[in-house]
Amino acid sequence: MINFLAQPNTIEPSYSNLVFQFTSTGATDPTKYKYRYVVDVFVSEGSDEIDGQIAQLKITPSSEGWGQVDISQILKNYTHSKPVNVGCSGNTTPLHTSAWGYLDKNMLVYSIKVGEEYSTTPNGTIFVYNGYGDVGEPDVRSNVGYTYNGVKEWYNGKQYDFTPYYLTGSTGFNSGVCRFMTNSPRSRWIRVGDYSTLAALNWFDTTEDLDSRQVYSALFTFYDSNNNVITSGRTYNTYDLCGTRPFCNYYDHFWDTPTNWYEQQVVYLGVGTPNLEEHGISFPDNTQYYKVELEATLSQPTPNPPEPFDFEGCSCHQYELFNPSLEALISISYLDCLGVEQTINIAPEATGNWCACQNTNIFLTSPEYTLTDMGECDACICKTYKVVNSDPDFSAIILLRYVRVKVRLVEGHYL
Fold first, then answer.
1. Distance from C-alpha of 32 to C-alpha of 25, rounded to nearest angstrom
2. What is residue 93's DSSP assignment?
3. Which of 303, 353, 357, 359 is least buried, going by the fewest C-beta atoms within 10 A?
4. Is the preceding peptide bond at 164 cis, omega within 30 degrees of 0?
5. Domain 2-79+108-156 in this protein, CATH class
6. What is the largest CA-CA distance in the chain?
7. Contact 218, 292 (CB under 8 A)
8. Which residues contact 344 (CB under 8 A, 6 or more apart)?
9. Bridge partners, 126 (sequence order)
């Protein structure tokens, strides 16, 4: 079986070293002739589709049995930074003149699958194996990685540490921890009339949950010659300004993930004085300098659990089930006619009878069986729940195991 020894970090520039190292006991097995590793390279999210595969490589193992491949030379041909803002309709707006934006093919999602090929005799036919010992296409998959059109300098070492560029708080990029994606000085000279842009990571955690958030807004703060704040202005990373968010909602994941989400992983912010006009921010006449910082989104809040406050009955039925197993118990959780959660355990080759509110029976063991409804039990009352949703943006979605649920207007917000 094939195992990975080393893989690139989650995010790496394409002009760097995207090295995978792997090993297999078959590589040093003297009964396997003409042995080579087979590596399929994909540029979609670990896709098995043929159109996601861009290369197949064959690697001769080292004398110790491991194989190694650097796919940066392949992937850098699939990334570019053509300066046309994909975020703007028509795809004809230059990026540097925009308020917000992103580029086509500026970031790719990639992965590899590793298999092996060999013959069982010196002159026999060579077959491809899937990496698990069976004949078939390579199937031992790597982690999903992201690469963008950037460069790793020699002093960055073997791998590029991208964590300084994670937007980790509700606001960021205003300290030495969270950085824009540039090696330029933190203070720049800029002339009135000069366009300028800065890039930042805008993380969609669709495949791996990193400690980085999506970009929500940018805050511009203007200072006079005495370092006094004159005014400030905020701009939002929204579709209206060629950004990546449908509207100004402060939380992540409140809209469907776009099909080109990986291109939106790097967002560009216009920071020159003409860009301020695109943002709708006025440039004070007595400005000596101004500061730019990005603000991040928040996780979607979890609504408070419902609290029972009265008891008004449910449709309570008697159920019966025979356990055909010779050894295993059947466990079922349910709400009884008083609305109290109960559990019944039915012994092997035994029959269980119980009364429960309809639609509340949940099998705690598998397989699940069909229950026999024996008709109504004595009438009872069920619980009504009140949920207070204080969030102005999100509806509270509560899953209840009851037939009847009252929905009330609480504190001015509909559930």
1. 10
2. S
3. 353
4. no
5. mainly beta
6. 88
7. yes
8. 331, 332, 334, 352, 354
9. none
Instruction: Work out the angle at residue 163's Cα, subtended by the Cα atoms of residues 160 and 167, and round it to the nearest 5 degrees.
Output: 140
User: Tokens at residue 396, please?
Assistant: 């509270």
d(CA 412, CA 374): 44
Question: What are the residue ranges spanned by the domains of the chain?
Answer: 2-79+108-156, 163-296, 302-415
| Exposure b/e, 56-89, CB count within 10 A at least 16 = b | ebebebeeeebbebebbebbbeebebeeebbbbe
What would the pLDDT profile of 306-357 be if each residue is shown by its tens digit? 555 454 667 888 999 999 988 889 999 998 888 788 999 999 999 999 998 8
Smallest CA-to-CA distance from 37 within 28, 50, 46 is with 28
**In this structure, is the dihedral angle defined by the CA atoms of residues 170, 176, 178 and 181, taken in order, positive or negative?**
positive
**Degrees to nearest 5, angle at CA 230 with 226 and 236:** 135
- Which residues, in sequence order, are CB contacts of 63 under 8 Å at separation 6+? none
Q: What is the pLDDT of residues 75-99, one digit of tens each?
A: 988 888 788 888 887 767 898 899 9
What is the rounded CA–CA span in Å between residue 5 and residue 316? 58
Three-state DSSP class for 410?
A: strand
Structure-block tokens of residue 382: 């069920």
